Structures are given as structure tokens and as C-alpha cells.
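I am sending you the entry underneath: sequence plus C-alpha cells. Let me know what the C-alpha cell row says about the fold:
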Amino acid sequence: MNSDDAWTLDHIRDHIEQGLPLVPLFNIDVIEASPSRGAVRLRGGEHVTRPGGSIAGPVQFSLADVASYALILADRRDEHAVTVDLTINFLRPALRLPLMAVAVPLRAGRRLYTVDVRISEEASGRLVAQATATYALSASS
């Protein structure tokens, strides 16, 4: 098997679920990972809402980070890439699950990879948050 064969969607899902314990805790599913797009879905669970019923900000932050990482794994196959900055703007309360987070590349340099992430309610398509993430790529990527 060549190195490209190993980076299937299933491999990326397994890598993320095993390496990031928050993914199963929050019920996050990686639904797409390609060089042009990473997408994750947040299903319901006891650890995702805050008092009042809205989806907690740290959970949305995690969605943005996981979607970004899935994109980078698919595009660069760099499992050692790490988040160096993630800025999120909460636009309105997220009240309905599932939520979708879709990450697309903004700039894919040799050492830094910057991503735009949009988080929306899946049923309505209503945008609830926008994030920009920058990852440092490992020297071997």
C-alpha cells in the first residue's frame, strides 16, 4: 500500500477518534475529509449544551478545530500538525442539533496552513459561528 492509500476517510476518522478523546465525548462525526474540504457533524449528547439549551461555545470551538484537522490530514497527510491559532466568532445561539462545521483552506503554505470554518445548524443551514484556524505543519510534511 502506498502512502496515499492509507489516508482514506476511514483512516482519518479512526486517527481523529483515537487521538482526540473529545470527539467521541461530544459525539462529533467526521463526514468529509478531502484536500479542498473538511466537514464534521455534531450530534446530540449530554456534554454539548449549556444551561438554557444552546450548544456550548467550547464545543463549537472543538468542531472548528476538528474540521480543520480533518482537512489538513486529507490535504497534507500531516498527523503532527498542531493548532497555533483559532479565532471564533459566535454569530447567534446554536439551538438545534445537528450542527455542521465545514473547513476550507485559505492559505496552504509550507509551514503554516490557514483555514476558514463555517458552523451552521444542519436542518436550517443557519450560520451560527465562523472561525479562522492556523496550524503549524511538521517539518516532514
About this structure: Helices lie at 3-6, 9-19, 22-26, 57-76. The radius of gyration is 14 Å.
